Hints:
The chain is 45% helix and 8% strand. The chain is an alpha/beta fold.
Amino acid sequence: MFRKRDRSELEDFGDILQPTEAQEPILAPPVRAALTEWLTEIWAEKELKAVDLTPRRRALFTGVPGTGKTTLAHHFAARLGLPMLVVRPERFKTAYVHDSAASIGKLFHLVRQEESPVFLFMDEFDSVASKRMDSGKNPVGEQDHNETINALLKSLDAHTGYVVAATNFASRIDDAVWRRFEIQIDLETPGHGERRRILRRYFAPFVLPDRALDALSLSLETATPALMRSFCEHVKRQIVVGPKANWEMSSQAVFARVVSSVQPHPDAGKPRLWSLGINDPGLASVPWPLAKSLSDYPNEEKGVEQPDPRGSNVTQLPTRKREGNSDG
């Protein structure tokens, strides 16, 4: 637990997320493998020490906006049973020379003073850790930035806890800072199978037949998890709000309103659905109105009900096995 004296000071740097607030991520196989390997070596700390190694403590998550970097870091912290401090870069950047470097030192000092570990997640890391400068165009600003990088390097070297940093612009990170992170994981946009599971999760409690999930997944190729979540949630809002507002509730009218009000991030590419709009063939595969059971679709083949999107269908990272128990 955070001591009351320091808690407010830590929150000056960002938001504190508890393990119970974490959401299970839907991971592509390469990302799942990398995170599983990391967790496994953390559980094997004693065995690693026997061969003069320690578990890695720092990871850098890269990828376009909306790929779930914060969600993944929070879930990883929750697997370790740790609260996560989401450090916001604007809390460091000030108009005063030397203040950014001092703020970084203060952050790591406060974390070290905590009685129990805190998982650090440094968001938009490139705004703090971009390459050092020596152009001579702005000597004071460049010196201040370089001092900030040096303070960050010193703090990372001295810190023994877990740190995950996230950036949308990996090429901007200073080379020395990059080397301080033992793990680098690129979160690409999800593949077909992951898109199906994401759609299934965020359309709940409504369910879609497999053919509709397949077709929509193709329509949303290159979409980020954040964009798919927004798309599904906007459809559900239309279902609830539309009748109250006396809007037209045909599938074409609903999807037209959703596509016009939800837009992909410019850096993430444009999925086919946003190129073809209501003419996208994936939308035609969606039975309408949406139902909460497959048996409520009269023209669909009756089959096995889709599993709970929060249950066994979700990709899970391993849980630590405890000595004396068959499973953790």
